[in-house]
Write a structure and sequence with these properties.
mainly alpha; elongated
């Protein structure tokens, strides 16, 4: 049985990879925003991951719940760093994709 903490640790690694490969010029701001999102949604992510792992949520339901949290990823540090709104939105979308993909890889 996979560990939910391993899932969250993998998400942190994914955020670091995403920030480094796609937003190198504002990497620290991207890391700050990604971590802030995880902090705000950690309880929900833990609960949903556990339900996904136990088969009580489908992968589609998990994805729907995660994407419903997108507005909580405010990307304040990226905005302050002067990143264009379109690129901040792309980072937010990629973050949601990574959460869903990581859950599939680790929990299923």
């Amino acid at each position: 049985m996979p560990d939910i903490d391993a899932f969250l640790d993998a998400l942190r690694d994914e955020i670091t990879d995403l920030a480094t490969t796609h937003l190198e010029e504002v990497r620290d701001a991207a890391l700050e925003d990604g971590e802030a999102f995880l902090e705000r949604t950690q309880d929900d992510l833990r609960r949903w991951a556990r339900l996904l792992e136990q088969g009580e949520l489908s992968q589609n339901e998990f994805e729907w719940l995660v994407r419903g949290q997108k507005d909580l990823a405010e990307m304040e540090a990226l905005k302050q760093a002067g990143l264009a709104a379109v690129r901040a939105e792309q980072f937010r979308d990629a973050l949601m994709d990574r959460i869903v993909g990581t859950a599939s890889r680790i929990l299923l």
